[in-house]
Amino acid sequence: MKPRTLLAWSTAGLALVAAAAFTGHRLAWRSGLASLQQQAQHRLELVTTGLDAQLARFDYLPSLLETTPQVLQLLRTPGDEGLRRDVNATLRGINATAGADMLYVIGRDGLVLAAGDAGQPGSPLGLDLSFRPYVRDALARQRGRFFGVGVSSGKPGYYLSFALAPKPGFEAPQQPPLGVATVKVSLEATEQAWRKLPGQVLALDEHGVVILGTRDDWKYRPLQPLPAPVRQEAARTRSYGGAPLQPLDWRVRETLPDTGGQLLALQGGRYLATERLLQRTPWRLVVLDDLAPLQAEARRMALTGALAGLLLPLLAFAWMQRRRVLVQQRASRVALQMAYDSLEARVVERTAELRAAQNELVHAGKMALLGRMSAGMVHELNQPLAAMRTLADNACVLLQHGRTKDVEGNLQRIARLVDRLGALTQRLKTFAHKSQLPAAPVALQPVVGNAQFLLSRRLREAGVEFAVDIDPPGLKVLADEARTEQVLVNLMANAVDAMESRAADPGDPLPPRQLSVRARADGANARIEVEDSGPGISGDILPRLFEPFVTSKPAGQGLGLGLMISAHIARESGGTLQAENRAEGGARFIFTLPLARAEAAAAASSPPDLPVSDHHAT
Questions:
Q1: What kind of fold does domain 436-502+510-605 have according to CATH?
Q2: What is the pLDDT of residues 488-509, one digit of tens each?
Q3: What is the pTM of this model?
Q4: Which residues, 6 or more positions from 387, have their beta carbon under 8 angstroms from its beta carbon?
């Protein structure tokens, strides 16, 4: 072969090998990056749902102290040491039940008057916390939220505060707050759970400072240098303790157009960053995936492509040299077989890696589902727990006045609520395993009464006129009592939320807040209607109302799981759950359940019912 021809063939072969290597590297990089982004989105959904649920878990706890007379009395007479000891014991008991990190009461001047950990090292009892933002926000706007390092304990936590003020009477006006109730929530367990996940997880506050994360050396460091006013405010409120706030070496190299993910250089490494905002706070959650394995895989695929690109030149060279050099022909065949074996091994290896990635995605999906179910359990257990706390506090007051008969009644109600919580957790466990619970005849009248009792405090505080009309009074359905009560509590609580959120037009007073529950036999089913006088359901939400995470409530006040779970309970019980807007204003939820056998037989033998009147029994 002439030197010029040999040079041309060699140049063409090298170009083919380079093109194959570049193509293999590019395809492997894009495919691996897409798979990494998908895994990051699933992992981000899991940690976001878990952190939102953890922050929502103790929302009710500070406001619960407003119903405790001893706390309000201590705020009026802060010098009463005996009363202070009693309140310390009460806070210790409440905190032991709720499971928060710390619960304490602050006077209007910012001085801590009582604490659940009084007498223990690191207790804030006696400290002046008036400089903390959550104290100022609660006194000015009823509630406050704040993340910071503890002044006395040195441990970080999330603070929820609520202004405590006497309830206004019929003639007494609204009085200014007497003080602030505060609960501190430790997020250390959440951080430990993140460490078990692949990659790195960071939580950034509104200033871009890392406040939670799986790397301790990155905590309390901003992504960019902080402005002087922000640093001064952080020093005054002690948000980050004594951290120097040294910025991280965070440099964005590329923003991906489809998902918004970022390829960045961070502290000497290269990462894929995927982020999402939390619902309850102005925080951002960021998941970081190391790009080093993906880069190594792209290099391996480039090498594989280069080997594949060598096949054609080798074949051509072997065909041209076959007659001239038999030894070279055999050597070429050996090289070709080796290249083929290497390519086959890479295909088998890549297939195994793809299967492993698929299994990892399935596992991430299961973990996300567990996060949603845990949020739903917290949502359903909060109201009975708050009712038990209120009954227990009232029992203490009644016992001091010698009203033992009323105390006995409260304790009986608490016992029933404990049984209900046990039944509810059993039902949630059964729901998770998709098992079928045996149905039994259930009278609707006591079920509605129990639901009304659980929401009695909210009905009174919201000024809701509640009406019940069950005809006949002994109407029974074939269902599970606890789950039927769970659906009614959720529908009634949503109705109260809707009526409280309704804003009045200028110069036009709000209509009375009315909530009614009606039940009638309708063929072989019982038709239960829950109606309110709220603003109704907006047209864009109504078609998707029973989907998960669909809610009309403001951010931080609902997860959008209650109606989805209620609709599932209705279907499992052989009934339905529908929603519509009333012509006269407000919303109507129609809950149907199969009638018990005696009621179904009576309904089949009786003539059709006349239209139901507007009369309600209060």
A1: Heat Shock Protein 90 (3.30.565)
A2: 998 998 999 889 887 655 555 7
A3: 0.48
A4: 417, 453, 454, 457
